[in-house]
Design a protein that fits this description.
This protein is α/β, with parallel strands linked by helices and 403 residues long. The protein is built from 15 helices and eight strands. Bound molecules: iron/sulfur cluster.
């Protein structure tokens, strides 16, 4: 192992430690700074407002713990994320946050917010509901209004005025970190760095938790260390990972995919490229810039939780495959994630029509049967390898796209 690899591993281990116990990180931060921490829910929260109020914005993460105390507060057929955050609230783990804020509102998230209100009576649980319909002028005006309400509530909670200069400063630091992470995505896509999917996820997910200045400093350190990191040498099957809203897939799943002879070259996961896809404009009124960021995010990486005639996820995916040269797609879908389930037939239709090999994997909070998945993953890798071999010998016989 080279010194560069050592340095990268040490930095990424620090990030993985933050992700594996985000509650401990928040506790430590509050003790160190004496400031407030605000739990925010995915996927479109403008964290810059919280940062500008001097508090720590933290995306509440799914926990590895089995759902127990919260089980009777939320329907069994809600997604893993909504069940886990309800459970964490019921166990009073989220009481360390001074308030919980959200702007997104799928059915499961609304259910979780109600359950959290019930389980955390001493904490404000506030929804500034942003419209999901993205094409109308009325939605733009509505987001403006909600953003103002959100700002007022945050000011009340923190006791600090949220000044435009402070928002601009938060935007600058967050943009800089996002840009570094996007450069790392580009290096991985081009094969210039052999960064595993587990490592890549830790890089993104820790940015949902850590203090912005500390995170930016770590990203600068990581980018410098990666300058000497080994490139990709072999010609493994290249895959794009797609989907998995609101929470991080288990890293063991990434390991399994890579052990089956594939490498992940790109993704549009929420705890992946989707999270860092879009910067906030640094000129003009920062409140307007945050509003525009909300709309632009769905153009840059479309999401099936939003409705927009001019942005479609399948079109984005085909372009992403073209850009990365990925041979196929693994769709990671959280079980009972309605917005993803309802859109999936569109994705499948496109992959079949375009001859893109794909595999759907449904994830659950507890009991992900990794060994059973191995066979399906190996079949996908084999299908792609056969296609490659056939293409190399000038044949075009293999038409199947799914396994
Ligand atoms: S978008 Fe999907 S994963 Fe996110 S809270 Fe809603 S159902 Fe759960």
């Amino acid at each position: 192992m080279t010194a560069a690899t050592d340095r990268v591993n040490i930095i990424v281990s620090r990030l993985e430690a933050v992700c594996s116990d985000y509650i401990a990180y928040v506790k430590g931060w509050k003790e160190r700074t004496g400031r407030k921490a605000v739990g925010v829910l995915p996927m479109n929260f403008p964290v810059e407002l919280v940062q500008a109020a001097g508090a720590l914005p933290v995306f509440v993460q799914e926990s590895d713990e089995p759902v127990t105390d919260g089980r009777n507060l939320i329907y069994e057929y809600y997604c893993a994320y909504s069940k886990s955050i309800t459970d964490q609230a019921a166990k009073q783990w989220l009481d360390l946050f001074d308030g919980i804020f959200a702007v997104d509102h799928c059915v499961a998230l609304l259910g979780a917010l109600d359950a959290m209100r019930f389980a955390m009576p001493s904490r404000l649980v506030y929804l500034a509901q942003f419209p999901a319909s993205m094409d109308e002028q009325a939605s733009v005006d509505e987001v403006d209004k909600r953003m103002r309400e959100l700002r007022r509530e945050l000011e009340k909670l923190t006791g600090a005025a949220i000044l435009p200069e402070a928002i601009s400063e938060a935007i600058r630091s967050r943009n800089e970190a996002r840009q570094i992470v996007r450069r790392l995505f580009a290096l991985r896509r081009d094969g210039a760095i052999n960064l595993s999917a587990r490592m890549m996820q830790a890089v993104v997910q820790s940015g949902m938790i850590m203090d912005a200045a500390e995170y930016l400093e770590t990203m600068l350190e990581l980018e410098a260390a990666l300058a000497d990191f080994p490139p990709v040498h072999d010609r493994k099957v290249k895959l794009h990972l797609s989907g998995h809203f609101c929470h991080a897939p288990r890293p063991e799943l990434f390991d399994m995919i890579e052990q089956c002879g594939a490498m992940i070259v790109d993704d549009d996961l929420y705890t992946g490229y989707r999270f860092v896809s879009t910067d906030v404009a640094e000129t003009g009124d920062p409140a307007i810039a945050l509003r525009d960021w909300y709309f632009q995010r769905n153009v840059n990486v479309p999401c099936s939780t939003r409705a927009q005639k001019t942005a479609d996820w399948e079109g984005y995916l085909l372009q992403a495959l073209e850009r990365s040269g990925a041979d196929g797609v693994i769709i990671l879908m959280a079980k009972f994630c309605e917005p993803h389930m309802l859109y999936y037939p569109e994705l499948r239709k496109t992959f079949r029509a375009q001859g893109v090999p794909y595999l759907l994997i449904e994830t659950e909070h507890e009991g992900l049967a990794l060994e059973m998945l191995r066979t399906r993953l190996e079949s996908l890798v084999e299908l792609i390898s056969k296609r490659r071999a056939a293409e190399a010998s000038g044949q075009s016989g293999i038409k199947e796209t799914s396994v």
